[in-house]
Each structure stands twice: as C-alpha cells, then as structure tokens.
Amino acid sequence: MFGWEYPPHVFGGLATANYGISQGLHALGDMETMLCLPKPFGDEDRSACKIIAMNSVPIAWRDVNYDYVQQRVGNIMSPDDYFRYRDHIYADFNYMHVNDLGAMEFAGGYPGNLTEEINNYSIIAGVVARTEQFDIIHAHDWLTYPAGIHAKQVSGRPLVIHVHATDFDRSRGNVNPTVYGIERNGMDNADCIMCVSELTRQTVINHYGQDPAKCFAMHNAVYPLAPELQAIVDQRLPYKDRKEKVITFLGRITMQKGPEYFIEAAKRVLDRTNNVRFCFAGSGDMMNAMIDMAAAYGIADRCHFPGFMKGKQVFEIFRDSDVYVMPSVSEPFGISPLEAMQSGVPSIISKQSGCAEILDKCIKTDYWDIDAMADAMYSLCTNPALHEYLQVEGKKEVDGITWEKVGERIRKLYDQVLERY
Amino acid sequence: MKTICLYFEIHQNIHLKRYRFFEIGKDHYYFDDYENERGITETAERSYIPALRTFLEMTKLYGKDFKVAFSISGCALELIENYAPEVLELLQELNETGCVEFLAEPYSHGLSSLANEDVFRDEVSRQAKKMKELFGKKPTVLRNSSLIYSDDIGGLVASMGYKGMIAEGAKHILGWKSPHFLYHCNQNPNLKLLLRDYKLSDDISLRFNNSSWNEYPLFADTYMDWISQLPEDEQIVNIFMELCALGIFQPLSSNILEFIKALPAAAKQRGIVFATPSEIIARTKSVAQIDVPFPMSWNDEERDTSCWLGNVMQREAFNKLYSVAERVLICKDRRITQDWDRIQASNNFRFMTTKPMSVGMYRSFYDSPYDAFTNYMNILGDFINRVNALYPSEIENEELNALLTTIRNQGEEIEVKDKEITRLQTRLKKYEGDTEKKAPAKKAPAKKASAKAEAPAKEAPAKKAAKKAEE
User: Fold this and answer.
1) Which of A261, A253, A282 is nearest to A348 (CA)?
2) Which of A36, A72, B4, B215 has the fewest CB atoms nearer than 10 Å to its CB?
C-alpha cells in the first residue's frame, strides 16, 4: 500500500483514511499490509501494518555497517530491511540528491517541490517492489499513483488506486494540468479504482474518462472515539443549560469548503436571534476575506476565528458546539461531519459532499441554498426535539459505519481483481 | 344475505408553502396556492370526476341496488369549491339518487381526537353542518381521520349523538374475530362499529394493477366469489378506501372503473347486496364489543398512530400545535380559525415520519423529515405568535374565558337594552302621534323623551369599556 501520511502526524483527511483502511484490513485476519510512507516519525501505530520508511530505502549503493544503520535510522527501519533493499537497487541513482545511506530525504507533508518528491517516491517504490513479495498494490491519492504504476510494471501485480479527492474538487474546475496528468495516468493504469463516494466516482468517470465497470464507490468510515476523547465530549452541557448556541464550521477556510455561504447564513440567523455564536475553526487562504465579510455584515462580534484545530482541540470544539455545518462546494467524502455526529453534534451538510450519500440522520442542503441552511440552523437552535432526535439518532447511525465493514468490502474487491487478473 | 358496504374517503391536503424562519412575524400566509390548485385539478381530472361519473352511471343502471358512502374533509371541500366545483356538482347529483350516504368527519382531517376533546367536537360539528348545507342531511355515522379509533374516541363520539363509526379491522385488535360483523364500542353500546376488511379493500386499492400479484388480473366475478364464499354467518363486508385509489393509485388504464362498474351485477347474481353504513347499523345487531385501549388507524403495516406521532419531532410539533387549542377555540378571527384547520391536517405530520418505508413515500417538496419539521415549526411559530398577540400569554385560559364571558354577557345585556330602547321609542312615536291628535296634552311625552335620551348616553361608556377589554 502506498500512502503519503499516517496518524499521529496528520495534515489532512488522508491520514485517517489510511489508518482506518489498514485497521479494517487487519481485522480480517488473513491480510498483511505493507504501507510505504515518505517520512515516518517512528511513533506511528504499527499494529495493523508494517511501515516502510521510504526516506531510508537505499537507491544507491553505500558501504555501511549494521551498527551505523541502526544508529542512523533504527527508529524507523530495521537494518536487516535496509540490507535487503540494498540488494535490489536497479539503477545508478548517484546523480540524485542521495545521503550517506544512499537514500533520499523527504520534507514530509505537502512542500513546494511536491512534484519532485512524488518522482523520488516512485523511484524508491521501484526498489521496494523488487524486494518485497505481494499480491496487490493499493495506491492512495494522486501523490502515490506514479509509485503504484512503477510497482505494477516491476512486479506485474494488479494496481488498485484509491481516489480520496480529485483536482476538480480542489479547484472548482480550474484543474492544474500537471496534477490532472498524474491522476489520469494513474487511473488509466489501474485495474480497479476505488472512489470515496459516488460523487467522486462520477467525476472519475466523466472527467477522467474511466470505464464505469472498474470504478467503485468505497465510502470512508470512522473509528469509535478514544476514551480520552469520549471523556472530553461527555463534558457537554445539557441542551437546556446552554443559553448561547454555538454553530461551528470546521475545516480549511478555502474555496472548496464554501465558508462564504456559512457567513451568509449566519447573517440571516443573526438578523432574527442574538443568542447564537458562529465559530470558524480552521485556517486557509480565505480566512482574512471571511473576517472582512463578517465585519462588513456587522456580525463580527458573533463570529469567532480560533484558527487551525487538531487532535483533542477538535473534540473540545465539538463539545461546545450545538450545530456543525459543512457547506462544502465539492467534498469527495468529508469525514468531519461523522466525527461531529459521533460527538453528539447534529450536522448540516451540503448535498455536494460524498458523506451525504451514506448519512441519513443529518440535514442536507444545497451549498448555495443559504436560506435553507439558515433555516436548518435556526430550527436546530430553537427546536429541542429536532436537536435531540438528530443527536441521538445521528450518533447511532455513525456508530454503525465502521472501518471493519469497509475492510471487508475492500477485500471483496481485491478478490474480484485477482480473479480477473 | 351478505351485504357490502362501500365507502370512499375524499381528502386532499392543503399544501404548506416553503416558509423560512425569517418570515416569522412578517408573512402570515402559509399556503402554496399553485400546488394546491395543481394538485386538486389533477386529482379531480384523473380520479374524482371519472370515478364519480361511473358511480352515477351505476346508480342509473342498478337503481337502489347499488349504495355507496363518502366522507369529505373540510380541507378537501375548500379546495374542491375553489378549484374543482364540478366534483361537488357530481356529488350533489349522486346525492339526489338516494343511493349515497355522507359521513361526518373532523373538518381538518387532523389528529384532534387524540389531543383535545373540544377541538374535536367543534371540528366535527362544523363539518357535519357543511354536509347538511350541501346535501340536505345531517350525518349520523362518523369516520375519524384515517380511521383513528380508540375506546375513548368511541365514547366521545357516542356522547356527540352519532349512531355509528367506521374503523380499521386491525389484526392486532380483532385477533381471532372477523371484521365481517357489526361490533359496538365498549364505552357505549349505542355506538356501532363497522370494521374495514383490509384484505378485500387493499386488493382493489393497492394491488389491482400489480401484475406480479398472483390474482392479477382481478375480475368482478372472482372478487364476488371470494365474498360469497365467506362463512354463512359473516354478513357484512366493509370495503373502505380513498377515492384516489380509483384513478391515481390504480391508473384508469388498468380499467379499474370497469371493474367497479361490474361489481353490482356480479353481486346480484350471487345474492349479495350493497348498503350504506347507517342502513347496516339500522338493520343489523351488534355481536360483541371491541376493546381498543390504544388508538389504531388504517395507516401502514402497524395500523397505529406511529406514522404521525412516531418520533420526538412529530410529538413536539403535535404538542405545540394543540397547546394553543383552547385559545383558538375562543377566538373568532376567521383567518386564524381557517389557518388552524389547515395546519392541523395529519398529512403535515406524516411528512415528518422517519419510519423506514417499504413503498416510496410522498414527501411533498420536503427533502427530508427534518426539512418538513423545520418548515412546519416555522409556520407554527408564526401562528402561535398571532394567537398570543390576540390574547396575551400571561393571562390564564380560565381568566381569559371569564373576561370573554363578561364581555359576551355585557354584549347581550346591551343588545337587550337596545331592543328595549327601540321598543320604547316606537311606543314614544305612537304617543307623539296620539298627542298630535290631542293637541293640548303636550307635557307628559316631552318628559319621557328626555328620560330616554339619557339612557343611551349611559350605555356608551360601557360599550367602550367592553371594546377595550376585547383588545
């Protein structure tokens, strides 16, 4: 499996999905997963999968001894593995920026020279593919597609790619040709395309010209809350004691997430009531524009911008929220409404998000339908019955969406692919 | 002799419009006129008119051998009067043949029987009055909205003087008993109950055009065979459905009207007759009482009230709605009472159901139950504000009632006094006429006139006070 990030070092939704899928596959009992990460930190949970640190895989021969390797990269890779990989170097990559171990460094995350890192990643994948034995290749998101293709060519094993997002979602239609090229190439070479929602599946079929027969919707799931997070969520005050209602937007404040619709709806709600507060948890390129917009509407005193939230903070925000809103213009899946509902926060989500396909106990509106969104917000703040219903039933519904079930479905698709291959 | 009782419900919901919360307090009109007109015209064209024409033909063909009963909700009647008067003409024409009985039902087609006795009485009496006006006869048999029935409702209906009621022959109530007998209410044996045979009814209204049904295609002869093959002592077969079943649930292209038209002839061959509910009640003896501790209805597989009051949202809306019931009853504002009737309709609650549905459910323009709830609560919010604006919420209902009674009494008193004044004035004129004849006697009438002039002057402030109290 090729992935780009993994908890606890989370940059976006991809890490959670990678983690969930490996756990779900592990739960089947007869699967072994090797996950290639560009830059693991050594504190990842390795219970469900073996993590291969791509920044320690040699691509050029270096004469180093066991102890040196142990001391250099021992926390992320065992020296035995290092020597195994060293035996499978397939070309002379000394012209590249290799270090004292003959490996390449990764910045981690999403740096400026991303295309270069993608390329490096795929070179290393060649070494890994020549070394390891495996039945199927699973590449997550476009960053790892070239590596997947390379591994497929080397090993002759089938390639499954997992589309967590497409560039059409990120750019509202103004795609970056380089990214599109990589995505398209990955899809063309794949034997099976798993998309996180039917919405994404349609994009893949219509915008990337893929055969519908090899595209499948594979919705994400959520993990049950960890006890320490559950403890935070349990501190929530009962509905009647919460004099001021808090409506929360959580996510990157970018064009894709539709923050301006949230402000427009907030304006309409505040025209009517004054015991509601709006919280923008997140950061992004539209943050300043949003602050300006709130000020221009004269609702800045009721809109709060606490900045980027992660880990525990997210659940602290959920604990203090009464309504969660995700007005995304285009959301391949959107895992945060599931987390909100898990924490007992009723959600309003846009119909243009992938998770709307599997959620029933939440309110769905079109992202542009500001009136409907405002109406739903107002209703949840003034009608305890609706709030209670969505709180209780929403939690029940999300608790039924587990990674184990996703793992089973992925396994079934694997079997199908292998049969045909 | 086996008897078939055929009954059709005529009800159309008056659709609410999309009402956002920021309209609360600004816009007091809640209805989607376009949708209402479109809905009723379509239903009339596709179902009501062809079906009623068929019944007319049948009465001509078979005379008194064919009987049928209808009930019309007040809401449907308003729609029909406004947009499809032809339906009403047909109904009146049918009424003149004497083969038709009209039943009473709550005006709004709402759930008042489960909430407030006074509202229910008021609603039923208004609908019955309307039936009397249109068809010249006061109904003696009642059918509650969606056949909701329980012991308490039975007792209430009996106390209103109705002789019979029609209800669902629900399996969980009847158990081993058969719906093919006349039963009575356990609170009052004078109220007879006709129970629907859901199998035979649904054969027509649900399955008639279903080609995967093993009895498809159904013919009138087969259908009547089923009835004539019932055990000897099972004499009454109650076939109740919505009139929409003929033409909308089962399209006209399925020849359902031909089937209906053939029924009386097929029945006659087998010695089966038709009768209206009140005829059956008059000529049949009840065999037993029926115990229905919890309300049942003809809706859904459960045959209970869960499709209107199944989840917390529905119950919240229901409780909020009937929390102002007493005030609305006191109120004489016509727009408020009209809106009250329309928003009570059970359809509005149905839209909020979260029950899983085996068949696709009609949700009007609402996206989801939450959407329906939000819209309804917005409208209800505005409506309650209007009622409260009329009578401040700080005043207790009883106190308010006392005040209103005082005002009413004062009004009556004033009326009596006004009458007295006019009486005296005419007498005065008479006297004056007399005095003109008898020129010398002038003094006495003049005195009287001044005394009378004082009297109205005294009452004027009293009137003003009354007006103030009303405000």
Assistant:
1) A261
2) B215
